[in-house]
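Final report, Chapter 2: Outcomes

The project's central promise was a pipeline that accepts a single protein chain and returns its three-dimensional structure in a standardized token representation, suitable for archiving and comparison. That pipeline is now operational. To close this chapter, we reproduce one record exactly as it appears in the project archive, with the input sequence first and the structure output second.
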Amino acid sequence: MSHSNAIVAPLVSDNLGLLQELNMTEGVLDLACGNGRNGLFLLQHHIPVTFADNNESALGEVEQKLEACTTKAQIWQVDLEVPGQDPLAGKQFDAILVFNYLHRPLMNSIQNAVRPGGLVMYETFTVDQAKHGRPSNPDFLLKPGELLDSFAAWEILSYNEGERSNPVSAKASLVARKAEAQ
């Protein structure tokens, strides 16, 4: 499988070992995956991935890259923002990746869709991003501490919030583990 020229997020590559340690039964959900850069990286490491996005052409590009892939992969075209609907209801994943995407009504659904002991890797823009350019709509920007607060009940494995230099941006990133079932 050829890797696209999109660079995998350091949050994923730096924490690959955490994903490899999971006893994968459900695979990883690459939520709002766009060009699939993070999920494609995981497939190269034999981790099954479901690529979810509502962009048909982006998913088509991902699907083309899957042709030589032997690891289990699924394409799921879904509108994650239909009011009153929960596209993740009843679904379970070993881990969920979310990058450069924020739809607050989904936050609880994301948490519920991770199996006990599973992981979330979440990285997106904060309100400070507006001074650097797009996105600048506060509906799509995390407030200070919001991502950390959203996963307060989880074991936080890593957290960073602030200015980034390459490219210049303002982001929060988190890796967290859901508690094992009681």
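Archive annotation: Confidence is low (pLDDT under 50) at residues 1-5.
This record, like all others produced under the grant, will remain available to the consortium after the project formally closes.
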